[in-house]
Design brief:
alpha/beta; ten-stranded mixed β-sheet; globular
Length: about 280
């Protein structure tokens, strides 16, 4: 009997050992990929085609892979605050300064600009053409109650629009039926404006990149109240965990390099006859 029990115990132990040996060891949690850079940016640099034009050169030169998340500036900044970005490229100075003041960003680096433009129906029913500035043009649109499509999404473009209207003078989408708050990106808003024959504030680059698909004209451009400056900000690793600091800095360094500057300076010239972005003087 003792021999039988000993044999059974030996068999049980043998099976247990075999099962343990067959079970794969639990893998350690994978570390964040140091060669991936998470870029949170505004829709305009993506919709205009600038990033798709620049990134292959950067990735080939450095070996990094850039994961682009594009949204309005407000949402782009929030992604960084939530720990989902290593670097941001946005265009809303006040929001950028708040981001820095909150400790979420290392340094605001303005590096290029373009202009917002007002686009609208070719017939220009509000008589916007020839206006002294964007504020005057907006006044004509409001007075004539011509349709206007707003981003309505807390993006840099939306914030610029609200600044042009002036505090306390902003239209209300519920009360002012001519004013359409879309809550959409720039491309979607331009398509909507074209379909509804409405006015819209847009960055010039995105409009030119979509012009052939739209039944709209530029009715006012390049006023001093329509300058649109873009900045790079690395996310602060002391505030946010898991930031790829080296990757973020590599991206910023390259975007400020002579190589990238030369590419940006000529982007759009061949297709549109004019550069879509202008570099700030270093």
């Amino acid at each position: 009997m003792k021999k039988v029990l000993a044999l059974l115990m030996a068999l049980v132990m043998a099976f247990a050992f075999a099962a343990c040996a067959a079970k794969p060891a639990e893998e350690e949690p994978a570390a964040a990929d140091a060669k991936v850079i998470r870029l949170s940016t505004t829709t305009s640099v993506n919709d205009s085609g600038l990033l798709p034009y620049l990134l292959p050169t950067f990735e080939e030169k450095t070996g990094y892979k850039v994961e682009v998340q594009s949204a309005g500036t407000g949402a782009a900044i929030q992604k960084a605050i939530d720990g989902n970005a290593d670097v941001i490229l946005v265009h809303a100075k006040a929001s950028e300064e708040e981001f820095i003041a909150g400790g979420y960003g290392v340094e605001r680096i303005p590096f290029m600009y373009n202009y917002f433009v007002i686009v609208g129906p070719k017939a220009d029913p509000a008589g916007v053409k020839g206006s002294a500035d964007a504020a005057t043009a907006f006044g004509k649109i409001k007075e004539s109650e011509s349709k206007f499509v707003s981003r309505g999404d807390e993006s840099g473009t939306h914030k610029a629009e609200l600044k042009i209207w002036g505090e306390g003078n902003e239209p209300n989408a519920e009360a002012d039926k001519w004013y359409i708050s879309a809550g959409q990106g720039m491309g979607a808003c331009l398509t909507m404006a074209s379909e509804q024959q409405a006015y819209c504030l847009t960055d010039k680059a995105t409009f030119l990149s979509m012009k052939d698909e739209l039944d709209l004209d530029i009715v006012l451009e390049e006023g001093e109240d329509m300058k649109n400056t873009y900045s790079l900000i690395a996310v602060n690793p002391e505030k946010i965990d898991g930031v790829n600091t080296e990757g973020a800095q590599a991206f910023i360094d390259w975007m400020l390099s002579d190589e990238a500057s030369a590419l940006i300076a000529k982007y759009g010239e061949e297709e549109y006859g004019v550069a879509l972005f202008t570099l700030l003087e270093k």
